[in-house]
C-alpha cells in the first residue's frame, strides 16, 4: 500500500479536470444517481462494463421514436427509399470505417459478429484457394513456398488464435470442415511464426476478451501476407477503444460488434470489412438477395453486387441499425488517438489504485503492463471472483466475472472518468478486506 486514498482521489480530480474528452460523458445516459446498492456509498454507479454492453447515448431514444413513429408509422414502405433504410448498411459502415481506419466503401453493417466471422473466414479461404489454383505468388514471396507448393488448392489450413472468443473458434471449425481445411489453434503471438505455405487464413482477435491483451495487428498481418495467406481480424474489443488502421496495415478482412465501445445497444448489428483489393473475388457463403447486383430483379440466378455490399445477406434490422447510427454521433469530432491516450491513462491509473488499495496477494493482473500489449480493460485474477463481482455490483461498481477466476473491468474513454476508476479500486479493496482468500 504505497499511496494514500486522499492523494489518489485528489489526483483523480485533477486528471478529470484536465480530460479533453470529459464533456462527452454528458452525451450518455448514466445512472449517476440511480445506485440501488444497499451500501452507504451514495454517489452513483461506476459502469466498467462497456466492453460487454456500452452505455446508452442520449440521442438514441428520440431518434428511435422518430424512426418508429414517423418513418415506420407514417411513411411505412416508402421509408426504404425516402428515409434511407435500404442504403443504411453501407452508410453506417462508412461511419464505422472512419473509426477503424477504413476508407469508404469497404465496411458493411448487418447480422451478428458470429455470422460475419463465417462470411469472412469462408470468403477468405475461397480467395486464398483461388489464388493458389491460379498460381499467384504471395505478396512478397518470402515465406509462401514455391508457386508449385501453392498451386492446385493446397491452401488447406486455417489458423485460429488459441484463446479466441468461443464463437470465432466454433465457426472457424465449421468453416474448416466446409472448405476442406484443417483448423490449427495457435497462441495469437505465435501466429506470425506458425503461418506456412499451406495456410489459407488466420483468424485473430485484436484484443483478447479475457486478458485484455492487445495482439500485434501490423506484425501478424505482415507475416501472414509474407506466407501468401489472408488474415481476418475480430475487432470486437478494439474498435472504439483504440486506433486500428485497417487500410494502413493492409488487413484483408475484419469483423466486429457494435454493442461494446461503439455503444450501438443490445444485439446491435455487427460489421464486415472487405479490403477493396479483395472485393471483386469475395465470394460470400451467404449470397442473399440484398447483395445481388439487382435485388429487385428477383432473378433466379445470383449475381453479386460490387463493393462492400457483397457482404450483405437479407433484410437489415432497421430499428437496431438506426439506433446504432444515432449512437455513432457521439464520435463526431473525437480523435481515436485521444481515445487511446485516455484509455491507457485510465487503465494505468486503475492498476496504480489497485496496487495502492488492495492488500498484496489478493488479486493478480493478467492484463499486460506494456502499453503496446494492452487493450482498454483490466482483468484481475481473484479467489472467489464470482462472489466478489456480485458484491462489487451490489455496491455500485459494475464489471464482469469471467469464469473461473477473472474480474474484468472495461474502461470506455468517452464516459469513464478517473474518479470512477479510483472509486472502483477503493470499493474492490473494501470488498476484499471483508472476504478471506488469496489469489486462486
Ligand atoms: C471477440 C468476440 N467475438 C465475437 C463475439 C460475439 O459475437 P455475437 O454474439 O455478437 O455474434 C464477442 C462477444 O460477444 C466477442 O467478444
Ligand atoms: N454479447 C453478449 C450478450 O449478448 C450477453 C452478455 C454478454 C455479451 C458479450 O458481449 C460478452 C462479451 N463478448 C465478452 O467479451 O465476454
TrEMBL record:
Domain of life: Bacteria
Basic and acidic residues compositional bias, start-end: 134-158
Pathways per UniProt: Cofactor biosynthesis; NAD(+) biosynthesis; quinolinate from L-kynurenine: step 2/3; Amino-acid degradation; L-kynurenine degradation; L-alanine and anthranilate from L-kynurenine: step 1/1
Cofactor: pyridoxal 5'-phosphate
Location of region: Disordered: 131-159
Pfam families per UniProt: KYNU_C
Binding site for pyridoxal 5'-phosphate: 113-114, 165-168, 234, 237, 259, 289, 315
Keyword Hydrolase applies: yes
Enzyme class: hydrolase
Keywords: Hydrolase, Pyridine nucleotide biosynthesis, Pyridoxal phosphate
InterPro entries: Kynureninase, PyrdxlP-dep_Trfase, PyrdxlP-dep_Trfase_major, PyrdxlP-dep_Trfase_small
N6-(pyridoxal phosphate)lysine carried by residues: 260
EC number(s) on file: 3.7.1.3
Reactions performed catalytically: 3-hydroxy-L-kynurenine + H2O = 3-hydroxyanthranilate + L-alanine + H(+); L-kynurenine + H2O = anthranilate + L-alanine + H(+)
Signal peptide (UniProt feature, chain positions): none
Gene3D superfamilies: Aspartate Aminotransferase, domain 1, Type I PLP-dependent aspartate aminotransferase-like (Major domain)
Subunit structure: Homodimer.
Stated family: Belongs to the kynureninase family.
Known role: Catalyzes the cleavage of L-kynurenine (L-Kyn) and L-3-hydroxykynurenine (L-3OHKyn) into anthranilic acid (AA) and 3-hydroxyanthranilic acid (3-OHAA), respectively.
Name used for this protein in its record: Kynureninase
Native source species: Streptomyces cuspidosporus
Amino acid at each position: 500500500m504505497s499511496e494514500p486514498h486522499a492523494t489518489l482521489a485528489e489526483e483523480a480530480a485533477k486528471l478529470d479536470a484536465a480530460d479533453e474528452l470529459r464533456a462527452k460523458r454528458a452525451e450518455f445516459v448514466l445512472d449517476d444517481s440511480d445506485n440501488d446498492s444497499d451500501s452507504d456509498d451514495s454517489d452513483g454507479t461506476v459502469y466498467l462494463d462497456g466492453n460487454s454492453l456500452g452505455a446508452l447515448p442520449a440521442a438514441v431514444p428520440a431518434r428511435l421514436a422518430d424512426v418508429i413513429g414517423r418513418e415506420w408509422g407514417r411513411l411505412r414502405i416508402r421509408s426504404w427509399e425516402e428515409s434511407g433504410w435500404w442504403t443504411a448498411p453501407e452508410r453506417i459502415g462508412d461511419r464505422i470505417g472512419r473509426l477503424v481506419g477504413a476508407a469508404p466503401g469497404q465496411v458493411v453493417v448487418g447480422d451478428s459478429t458470429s455470422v460475419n466471422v463465417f462470411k469472412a473466414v469462408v470468403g477468405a479461404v475461397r480467395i486464398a484457394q483461388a489464388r493458389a489454383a491460379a498460381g499467384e505468388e504471395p505478396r512478397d514471396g518470402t515465406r509462401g513456398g514455391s508457386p508449385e507448393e501453392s498451386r492446385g488448392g493446397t491452401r488447406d489450413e486455417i489458423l485460429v488464435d488459441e484463446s479466441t472468443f468461443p464463437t470465432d473458434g466454433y465457426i472457424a471449425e465449421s468453416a474448416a470442415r466446409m472448405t476442406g481445411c484443417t483448423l490449427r489453434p495457435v497462441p495469437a503471438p505465435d501466429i506470425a511464426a506458425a503461418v506456412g505455405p499451406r495456410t489459407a487464413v488466420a483468424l485473430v482477435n485484436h484484443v483478447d476478451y479475457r486478458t485484455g491483451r492487445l495482439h500485434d495487428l501490423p506484425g501478424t498481418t505482415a507475416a501472414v501476407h509474407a506466407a501468401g495467406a489472408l488474415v481476418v481480424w475480430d475487432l470486437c474489443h478494439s474498435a472504439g477503444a483504440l486506433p486500428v488502421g485497417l487500410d494502413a496495415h493492409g488487413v484483408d478482412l475484419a469483423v466486429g460488434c457494435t454493442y461494446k465501445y461503439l455503444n450501438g445497444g443490445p444485439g446491435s448489428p455487427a460489421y464486415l470489412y472487405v479490403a477493396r483489393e479483395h472485393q471483386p473475388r469475395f465470394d460470400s457463403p451467404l449470397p442473399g438477395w440484398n447483395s445481388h447486383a439487382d435485388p429487385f430483379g428477383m432473378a433466379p440466378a445470383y449475381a453479386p453486387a460490387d463493393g462492400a455490399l457483397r457482404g450483405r445477406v437479407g433484410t437489415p434490422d432497421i430499428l437496431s441499425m438506426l439506433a446504432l447510427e444515432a449512437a455513432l454521433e457521439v464520435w463526431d469530432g473525437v480523435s481515436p488517438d485521444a481515445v487511446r491516450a485516455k484509455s491507457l491513462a485510465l487503465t494505468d491509473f486503475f492498476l496504480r489504485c489497485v496496487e495502492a488499495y488492495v492488500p498484496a496477494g489478493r488479486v493478480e493482473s493478467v492484463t499486460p503492463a506494456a502499453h503496446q500489449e494492452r487493450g482498454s480493460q483490466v482483468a484481475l485474477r481473484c479467489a472467489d471472483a464470482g462472489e466478489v463481482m456480485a458484491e462489487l455490483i451490489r455496491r455500485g461498481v459494475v464489471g464482469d466475472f469471467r469464469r473461473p477466476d477473472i474480474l474484468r473491468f472495461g474502461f470506455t474513454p468517452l464516459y469513464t472518468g478517473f474518479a470512477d476508476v479510483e472509486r472502483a479500486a477503493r470499493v474492490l479493496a473494501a470488498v476484499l478486506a471483508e472476504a478471506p482468500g488469496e489469489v486462486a
